[in-house]
Amino acid sequence: MQLAPRIAHIAGTDGDGWGIYYRTREMIRAGERVLNLTIGEHDVKTDAAILGAMHGAAMAGHTGYTFGAGLPELRAAIAARVQARSGVPTRAENIVVTPGGQSALFSAHMALLDRGDTGLYCAPFYPTYSGTIRATGAEAVAVATRSSRAFQPEAAAIMEAATRPTARTLLINSPNNPTGVIYSRETLEGIAEAVRAADLWLISDEVYDTQVWEGQHLSPRALPGMAERTVVVGSMSKSHAMTGSRLGWVVAPEPVVEAITLLATVTTYGVPAFIQHAALHALAQGEGFEAGIAEPFRRRREIATRALAGSQAIRAIPSAGAMYVMLDIRATGLSGNAFAERLLEEERIAVMPGESFGAPAAGHLRVAMTIPDADFAEAMARLAGFADRLLP
């Protein structure tokens, strides 16, 4: 008896990249004080009014099976939000509701890739990306970006990767996890040109679109000729602090929506109706509510900037969005893995090594700005001091 080979194919050979996080969780469970900057989850919980709406919907009887692409009224609300934020005409028929953003990523790739195909993605990358692509049976191929260019993807590199005859999709993420970078219009226009030339689908992970500190977020779906070949992933997790509620969506041309809806029929059977009603209530709170959820990360970005200003050992990648800062610590002579291990052992500060997010982030750290301001300020000051003490 053996497992299906597809499971080994999903896992790949690089591990899941979360070793530091698992160790940190065990240390905290054992009662140790660890300043945990590893995971992108809000330090505030889901708003009580949203939970009240969820409870009320459940008590009103919305506890049965859900079928199809989602509640019509929720799909319409998401479509209106997407159209208002992107300027691209969007109908409810372009929306399918999924059990979280990860399910949306999985469903989009399942609809667009098959065994023998190649799915491209930009590195550094969120650790599930490569496994999600491999879950379809396809091969996952990273397109490297460079720290010296603030990890902005280069059209020439994408064009080169897209020349593979089996390439079918390209996955991008802006605002970006792990780097905090927002892709510029120039970058996105170069990406759009490359995917049009190679006749690829573009899958755009935009779950951090409410966390923008400098400039503005531009959805590539809004660029000329891109709406018909772009699939956008969205989620309530980051915008409304609803990570555990598992409510995401896909924005796509109708044939893709229909394919993902068919996939849901044989996998998830949809999202519980009481959660969908809670999401509808949350979306109705408007942009001011979303700005309030994002504001702590704006503050902490400034805290990090001040704490690192005098460091000789750390170069911060300019963070324009998302709840992360990426730090280049190569001047210390340590790898990201070695630095993160020593920081945890000696300072009880937990960060993610850049190597967890792909080879281009080697020698870097990802810092999640997800603990209260005072603790975050302490962590950043101690991290900077630790790094400077390591200088040769």
List the helices and strands and how they pair.
Elements: H1 5-11, H2 19-29, E1 35-37, H3 48-59, H4 72-86, E2 95-98, H5 101-112, E3 118-123, H6 128-135, E4 139-144, H7 155-162, E5 167-173, H8 185-198, E6 201-205, E7 230-235, H9 236-240, E8 248-251, H10 254-265, H11 273-283, H12 286-308, E9 315-316, E10 324-328, H13 336-347, E11 349-353, E12 364-368, H14 373-389
Helix pairs in contact: 1-6, 3-11, 4-11, 5-6, 5-10, 7-8, 12-14
Could you characterize the architecture of this molecule?
The mean pLDDT is about 95. The chain starts with a helix and ends with a helix. With about 400 residues, the chain is α/β, with parallel strands linked by helices. The protein folds into 2 domains: about 5-45 and about 290-390, Aspartate Aminotransferase, domain 1; about 65-285, Aspartate Aminotransferase, domain 2 (3-Layer(aba) Sandwich). The chain has 14 helices and 12 strands. The longest helix has 23 residues, at about 285-310. Strand 5, helix 8 and strand 6 (about 200-205) form a beta-alpha-beta unit. It has helices at about 5-10, 20-30, 50-60, 70-85, 100-110, 130-135, 155-160, 185-200, 235-240, 255-265, 275-285, 285-310, 335-345, 375-390; strands at about 35, 95-100, 120-125, 140-145, 165-175, 200-205, 230-235, 250, 315, 325-330, 350-355, 365-370. Strands 2-8-7-6-5-3-4 form a 7-stranded mixed beta sheet, sandwiched between helices. It has a 5-stranded mixed beta sheet with strand order 1-11-12-10-9, sandwiched between helices. Belongs to the class-I pyridoxal-phosphate-dependent aminotransferase family. Its cofactor is pyridoxal 5'-phosphate.
